[in-house]
Amino acid sequence: MPPTPSPARPPSARTPFGHALAGLLDVLLPADCAGCGAERTQLCPACRHALTATRPGPTLLPWAHAAAPYADPVRQLLLAHKERGALRLAGPLGEALGRAVRSALGARAGAAPLLLVPMPSARAAVRARGHDPTLRLAGAAARSLRRAGLDARAAPLLRHARPVADQAGLNAAERRRNLHGALTALPRARRGLAGRQPVLVDDLVTTGASLAEAARALADAGLPARAAATVAATAVHPPGQYT
Q1: pLDDT tens-place string over residues 54-63
Q2: Contact 227, 51 (CB under 8 A)
Q3: How many CB atoms lie within 10 A of CB 231?
Q4: Cα 177 from chain centroid (whole Å)
Q5: Which entry of 50, 114, 120, 192 is 20 to 30 Å from 214 by CA?
Q6: Please, which residues bridge with residue 153 across strands?
């Protein structure tokens, strides 16, 4: 009797080598658009337009701005980059994040050099995905801002201080309780932020609980972040910002 074939690994269970191979193939081989499935282009003009057509604006946290609503095709682009290793999407997603950074800072954008501080990913999640998507987006956003003439760099200055429960299904108050005290600033944070404006960055904001906890962790270290930016948001404030 022939041996039973091993089940295929789901994308979320890829090894780091698997993600490296996927990233290489992503560069060498044509791919369908991650946003809409259009053939032989990983990001079609229509989906690229969806990342740039809306004006960045405030989310449920007035000091946190997002570049686009969390709706298809932007939702699919973020998932492809984060969960399926579509690494070439980091460039256009990072450009969108950079626009949100400038929107969040307003006139303060050029007041001092910028340091983009990504929301930390759990180590287990980084191992499963084979990369840290938020750190990658922060780096791409910093490069985009430098091309626009701003002094910007990215550095991971936060880490998880304790485990947290799965956020799925939790309302805003429950998320805040779940996350309170979950993050802390790394000892090198003061050196990394010397003379720079810290801006928290993430791929997505829903209730704002994660960004609020990250801001608390930096503030407790004496390093207040006065702005945050994300690629997408599930809700915006005031209503109609993206119309």
Answers
A1: 999 999 999 9
A2: no
A3: 31
A4: 22
A5: 50
A6: 115
Q: How far apart are CA 77 and CA 34, in angstroms?
A: 6
User: Which residues share a beta bridge with 197?
Assistant: 114
The predicted model scores a pTM of 0.83
Mean pLDDT of the chain: 85
DSSP state for residue 121 in the 8-state scheme:
P
Q: Please state whether beta strands 158-160 and 183-185 pair in parallel, antiparallel, or not at all (unpaired).
A: antiparallel
Distance (Å, whole) CA 9 – CA 13: 6
Helix, strand or coil for residue 92?
A: helix
* The residue type at 87: L
The torsion region of residue 55 among left (phi > 0), alpha (psi -120 to 50) and beta comes to beta
pLDDT (tens digit per residue) in 97-143: 999 999 999 988 988 999 999 999 888 888 888 999 999 999 999 99
Two structure tokens written together for 231: 């690629």
Question: Collapsing DSSP states into helix, strand and coil, what is residue 180?
Answer: coil
Q: Which two tokens stand for residue 171?
A: 């309302």
Maximum C-alpha span of the chain: 72
Sheet holding 152-154, edge to edge: 57-58, 64-69, 227-233, 197-205, 114-118, 152-154
